[in-house]
Amino acid sequence: MTVLDAVVVGSGPNGLAAAVTLARAGLSVQVLEAEDVPGGGARTLDLGLADGVVHDICSAVHPMAVASPFLRAFDLPARGVDLLQPEVAYANPLDGGRAALAYRSLDRTAAALGVDGPAWRALLGPLVDDPDGLLAVALGDHRGVPRQLGTAVAFGLRLLELGSAAWGARFRDDEAAALLAGVGAHAITRMPSPSAAGTALLLAPLAHAGGWPVPRGGSGAIVGALLADLQAHGGSVLTGTRVDRARDLPAARAYLFDTSPRTAVRVLGQRLANRVARGLIAFPRSRGAAAKVDLVLSGPVPWTHPEVALAGTVHLGGSRMQAAAAEAAVASGRHADRPMVLVSDPGVLDASRVTATGLRPFWAYAHVPAGSSVDVTQAVIAQVERFAPGFRDLVVASRCVPAAELDHHNANLVAGDISGGAVSVYRMLARPRLAWDPYALVAPQGRAAGYWLCSSSTPPGPGVHGLSGWYAARRALKDGFDLPAPSLSPWD
Ligand SMILES: Cc1cc2nc3c(=O)[nH]c(=O)nc-3n(C[C@H](O)[C@H](O)[C@H](O)COP(=O)(O)OP(=O)(O)OC[C@H]3O[C@@H](n4cnc5c(N)ncnc54)[C@H](O)[C@@H]3O)c2cc1C
Q1: What is the domain count for the chain?
Q2: What digits encode the pLDDT tens for the residues 214-255?
Q3: Is 96 a domain residue?
Q4: Helix (H) or strand (E) holding 256
Q5: Which pTM value belongs to this model?
Q6: Domain limits for position 265
Q7: Is residue 226 part of a domain?
Q8: The domain spanning residue 452 has which CATH number?
Q9: Ligand 1 center to residue 66 CA distance, Å?
Q10: Does the residue 399 lie in any domain?
Q11: Is 486:86 a contact under the CB 8 Å cutoff?
């Protein structure tokens, strides 16, 4: 019987990052993927809504990919992935035709925010100026104290401020407050809260550091680059292969799970120590979830504020208090009347996404309570229409995947949880359980196989960064094979 060195279950960005790392270290690697198309949360698919229009069914915008130490070393641009940078990283329209805009440039953003410009700069400047420190704090494996202590302290103080009732104290006008609330809302949780604050303090500075790019052709371009590298180093992906039980696993010395913790427990059963299994099962899901809406439009969105049209991402929650009210409803298990909606029109940047007849994809999701089976298409259209009258008339075709059905195309997205489990400050450390090594499920011993978790249910949490896969694979290489981490350079 052939024994593989390593099997990776799941081909999301973390699974592929793990597989690439292991294959580059010289191991024989096979990835087993339940779906017919690899890539998990970074797939770009033809949904059959309109000829020539493809959709990002999960992620579309990639601040984490530019920031990620793994993907930076992997060097996406050198591999032909064109990360298109919008002039406005993200925008937050407000009622009455106003809008708050986060430009790539911190200076320009501060200037546009007028009276609140100095406060915006004072809040984010120290984090923008030390991107490596910011990444060590927010995108590390959360084990150990970052070397960049000054930035860690700056982050911590701001987290305390923005995570508390003082979150609005810095700003005098609606614009800056709304801009920050829109970013914090990516945590899909109550605002103010430490988790929304931490999310804002990572994503807002990244807009001014590496940007919030959209890959030409869609997120699948990132998957394509990872797959090509995996294959070039002898690895392979078997699609349409769901792993439900231990006997579905081919013989190997190392197994890495890009799955939910509960799937790992179900598959591994008795192989897991009771204490580990209990910890994994106790890892809570997020209370907030996403319902996905993909539209085909016949033209660009007629935003009332013209500069919103320059944005790669638009946050549609209105003012800070309106966004907070919508998130509070979701956190208490209710649908908001005007939910937080996130949208992107990639055709703004990427002509390849627009057909000869002018059709283009429109990416959106709305925040809803976990497990919601509500079709939010009309709620999403109404939120866009609020800031872009006439939008409704552009909609040519639509598809909604309610939160309760997101796991039909990705088993990790149970009940519409797009974060791989609860996103709280504690759960960033104890992710998925409180342990010195959050990735190890069963440590390898002698010739016995080792098992690791490598999905976004481990540090540093959600996002297309590949870091959970990279951190877990490096541990597997060290503890299972006594091998160092390989180079990720395209030239090696
Ligand atoms: C609607 C939505 C919008 C998002 N927007 C963004 C965004 O714009 N930017 C961003 O950075 N992030 C975004 N995210 C989050 C991002 O997609 C995830 O954090 C990221 O994909 C997590 O990567 P992963 O590899 O851990 O898991 P996933 O990408 O979820 O991949 C897991 C893979 O494992 C497979 N799998 C699961 N169980 C099994 C099994 N038993 N057997 C075999 N295969 C299995 C799944 O089919 C899937 O392919 C979004 C997510 C969603 C759902």
Answers
A1: 1
A2: 999 999 999 999 999 999 999 999 999 999 999 999 999 999
A3: no
A4: strand 252-257
A5: 0.98
A6: 4-34+241-284+422-481
A7: no
A8: 3.50.50.60
A9: 18
A10: no
A11: no
pLDDT of 1 higher than 80: no
Q: What is the mean pLDDT of residues 424-437?
A: 94
Residues 6+ apart with CB under 8 A from 210: 63, 66, 67, 131
Q: How far is the CA of 293 from the centre of ligand 1 (A)?
A: 16
Residue 103 belongs to some domain of the structure: no
Does residue 419 contact residue 461 with C-beta atoms inside 8 Å?
yes
Instruction: Confirm or reject: Cβ of 411 under 6 Å from ligand 1.
Output: yes
Task: Answer whether 14 contacts ligand 1 (Cβ < 6 A).
Answer: yes
Give the burial class of 399: count Cβ atoms within 10 A of its Cβ; 0-12 exposed, 13-18 middle, 19 or more buried. middle
Q: How far is the CA of 92 from the centre of ligand 1 (A)?
A: 26
Q: For 366-390, write each residue's pLDDT tens digit.
A: 999 999 999 999 999 999 999 999 9
**CA dihedral of residues 329, 335, 339, 345 (deg, nearest 10):** 140
* C-alpha to C-alpha distances, 50 to 199, 219, 357, 375, 399, nearest whole angstrom: 35, 19, 11, 20, 11
**Closest Cα to atom 4 of ligand 1:** 59
Q: Which of 259, 283, 408 to mutate to test the pocket of ligand 1 (most atoms within 8 A of CB)?
A: 259
Sign of torsion over alpha carbons 479, 245, 237, 456: negative
Q: For 32-41, 137-146, 263-272, 291-300, which range has the lowest pLDDT when averaged over its residues?
A: 137-146
